[in-house]
Amino acid sequence: MKQRATHSDQRSFRGLILGGILLAMGLCVGANALFEQSLPLKSLPVLTKVQADLVATERTGRSVKFSDLKGKVVVCAYLYTVCPHGCAAITAQMQLLLKRFGERADFHLLSVAIHPDRDTPALLTNYAEAVGAKPDSPWWFVTGEQKSLWNFMTQELHLEPAKAIPEDERVNPLDHYEHDLRMVLIDRQGQVRRYYSVYHPQPEIAALMCENLPQDVQRLLDHPEL
Fold first, then answer.
1. How far from 158 is each of 23, 138, 198, CA to CA, in Å?
2. N or C: which end of the chain has fewer CB within 10 A?
3. Is the Cβ–Cβ distance between 149 and 116 less than 8 Å?
4. What does the pLDDT look like over 170-179, one tens digit per residue?
């Protein structure tokens, strides 16, 4: 009888120890969360600022300007509707961003045609509908004069210059141009804050970019001072 009581006491003692450990862990996690919340938010770097405007034709056929987006957080990238490389990965991220932030009046997406002779407003309209972008969605699909589009992406957003692919080096007959596959985050003042290689040969880096992009968009939306 005495031995059974001793075992019972030991079990109770172990239970108290385990409970104390779990309580301490919970307190530590809670304290750490409070500590992190109390830390000042780290500002994203300002990499460059858009100086010249872009005038282009939106899929609806109307003329739009990049300056019309002043006061909004913008995510911009090249688009080629039949791209055999990474445009699909970029479009997938655009779709996720639209779903998450599309109801906000201070958020916008911008897809710029790399091959405007092919990607006309009519074709971009069909493409936009296929990826779930409605006519009133905060997502522009723009085309226009190729040199003007390329100059804006290279000189203002500082993406790598696009270039034609020789016919004998093409993956398929539609593979006309090599272009930068990064997405660009632009703040309300037209400042480029970060680039995201969501289509990267190293899956770990691509996954990290896909995780960081919406987090950084959220930060700029919620904290304009950053």
1. 51, 23, 17
2. N
3. yes
4. 878 878 888 8
